[in-house]
Amino acid sequence: MGYYDDQDGQRRGKESRRGGGRFGYFLSGLIGVIVGALVVALLFPSIFGKTNPDSAAVDSNSVANTNPSTPKTTKTVSLKVTTDITKAVEKTEKAVVGVSNIQKQSIWSDDMFGQDSKSSSSQEAGSGSGIIYKKAGDKAYVVTNYHVIEGANALEVTLSNGKKLSAKLVGSDKYTDLAVLQINGSNVTTVAQFGDSDALKLGETVIAIGNPLGEEFAGSVTEGIVSGLNRTVPVDIDEDGTEDWQEEVIQTDAAINPGNSGGALVNIAGQVVGINSMKISNESVEGIGFSIPINSAKPVIHQLETKGKITRPALGVGIVNVSDISAYQQKETLKLPANVTTGVVIGSVENGSPANKAGLKEFDVIYKLDDQKIDNIVELRKFLYEHKQPGDKVKVSVYRNGQPKTFTLTLGTASGSN
């Protein structure tokens, strides 16, 4: 006989309700997943295989560019650089030339009989640079350094285009280290413009143009600044170990090497403000080059071009520095006051010279010209050469036997003496 267990029925009812709840949870989760997938599909279509046409194009190009078989194109970029410096160089570079010093050299050799024979040949003994500063008709004029042409039997100028021309020496001056040459002007296209060296300022940009180390480096350009103005450099002109002159120069750190001598130092406007002349070169000194100020050079250049030489005044005496005389001779022979240790001793007087006519004698010690104190030979020469001309009068103050005396004389023309 069957029976109904009310308690069991209640249990089954709870289980039925629990099963229905699980199904509901599952259905809700499924709906959530479907909705989420639809949202993602709308926002990110490429996930489901739909691609953006633009993106596809980019990807395609990327693949093509990485394919080794695809030709690669390299673009060539051409820059035309123009600066103040390049303009300055363009203005002057063709006026800067090479100067070759050609000298005859003896060659000894054995002849077919074993006897010594002597022959001579002309060879380049040195080279430097020069500046074409003037063209007149079929002639052109070049300024360079005296030491570039010294001792030459023949001179040759090489233009910026490589053409070589024979050159004639018009005039030279060893004291200012300047020389003027003349060449055929038919091939000359550029003449340098002189500037104003007195207007230069410390730190101003300057450019050196020349032929360092010869024609192989012709037309070399170096750039620097004005490092010093109104500098003086002692020069031993006759190479006897005694300073004969003090050259007034512009100091620059633009590289000036052997072969640059006679070349141009130009300002940013392309004007020649100096003629490169000397360089201190040793292990302890670097970046110190010297150039003759163009304002000092111009009157010398003009006189060399028109007269062939520099006419300088002279006293007509042979001289030596007091500082080169022993203290004993200063006291016993010259009889100088104890406080006088500088000046110029007259060692000889030429017959008929201005000094002889004025009454100057051997062992007179010059200590003043006009009102200018004179301490040595260099100062005496600079005063005469820069402030006087032949025919001018000058007062000469001397110590004679220890006593001061003053003489007035009319200056003559320099030859070999002062």
Helix share, percent: 10-25%
State the secondary-structure class: alpha+beta
Q: Average pLDDT value?
A: 82
Number of strands: 20
Spell out the helices and strands N to C. HHHEEEHEEEEEEEEEHEEHEHEEHEEE
- Relative strand content: 35-45%
Q: Categorize the overall geometry.
A: elongated
Fold topology:
Layout: H1 6-43, H2 53-65, H3 84-92, E1 96-110, E2 116-136, E3 139-144, H4 146-149, E4 154-158, E5 164-173, E6 178-184, E7 205-210, E8 220-235, E9 245-252, E10 264-266, E11 272-279, E12 289-293, H5 294-307, E13 313-314, E14 317-321, H6 327-332, E15 344-349, H7 354-358, E16 365-369, E17 372-373, H8 377-387, E18 393-400, E19 403-410, E20 412-413
Features:
8 helices; single chain; 418 residues; disordered N terminus; 6-stranded antiparallel barrel; alpha+beta; 6-stranded antiparallel β-barrel
Describe the structure.
This protein is an alpha+beta fold and 418 residues long. The chain has helices at residues 6-43, 53-65, 84-92, 146-149, 294-307, 327-332, 354-358, 377-387, and strands spanning 96-110, 116-136, 139-144, 154-158, 164-173, 178-184, 205-210, 220-235, 245-252, 264-266, 272-279, 289-293, 313-314, 317-321, 344-349, 365-369, 372-373, 393-400, 403-410, 412-413. Strands 1-2-3-6-5-4 form a six-stranded antiparallel β-barrel. Residues 1-19 and 50-64 have low confidence and may be disordered.
